[in-house]
Amino acid sequence: MRIGEGAVPYQEAWEEQQRLHALRLADEIPDTVLLLEHPPVFTAGKRTKPEDLPLDDTPVVQVNRGGEGTWHGPGQLVGYPIVKLPEPMDVVAYVRRLEEALIRACGDFGVASSRVEGRSGVWVLGRELPDAVLDPAKVVDIGKLTLRLGLPLGIDPRLAGPEYAPSNAGQRGDDRKLAAIGVRVARGVTMHGFALNCNPDMTWFDRIIPCGIRDAGVGSLATELGRDVPVAEVAPVVERRLAEVFAELPEPALAR
To answer: Beta strands of the chain (E only): which ranges?
Structure first.
């Protein structure tokens, strides 16, 4: 666990992920998670659009995870689980476990969070708007999903149901994303992971369209609670919740 003055440059963490991935693939180590902070950096996943990146000359690192563009930096707890998924491999179930661990951790700090159908990550839902009516012109129905018009289609139908709040189509105020998730699975072993906003300088997010989402905001534990919530306070709670959730897998629990 490297946070605060021990923040890890993104490239260094990426090289360590690759090293651990090879060891986990060869069964030379158990499932492992890196918990750390990065110095400020923008990263762009495979689906990032050029118009969602910084408008100035801020450097951007292209990465091979899923998802779109995001920011990492001080005040944000980043986790890179290196996990061998059981067969039959279910990547959606893996993402759900990451979400579940983070939802429980946020709850430990008194912040109620949720999943939102059709969107990965952990969210604080906007306040319900009195007398709001769902505008059919703003949504598209895909099976059980009700999504904002213009979102990419091809959403996995499992991203619906009681575990997911309905996609916001004007029936509540802006949702706020507390944690972003972007993963890659290579030869059955996971890489990349999640970023939970604890107490970052939120103005960094003003330079990009975080995760390519224009109709929602970004939040942090500090902004939700109205007090400072340092990464050092959050990291052991997330570590415990990850171990708890991944203990349900037929593989060894996550080890630090």
So the answer is: 32-36, 41-44, 60-62, 69-72, 76-82, 114-116, 119-124, 139-142, 145-148, 164-165, 176-186, 189-197, 217-218
- Considering 211, 216, 221, 235, which one is annotated as catalytic? 211
Reported as a pLDDT band with limits 50, 70 and 90, residue 83 is very high
Is residue 31 within 8 Å of residue 189, measured between CB atoms? Answer: no
Residue 71 pLDDT grade (very low, low, confident, very high; cuts 50, 70, 90)? confident
Q: Decide if 211 is catalytic.
A: yes
* CB 195, CB 78: distance < 8 Å: yes
Structure pTM?
Answer: 0.79
CA-to-CA distance for 3 and 28, rounded, in angstroms?
26
Q: Rounded mean pLDDT of 41-55?
A: 71
The string of DSSP letters for 51-69 reads GGS-SSS--EEE-SSSS-E
Asked if 74 and 36 count as a contact pair (C-beta separation under 8 A), the reply is: no
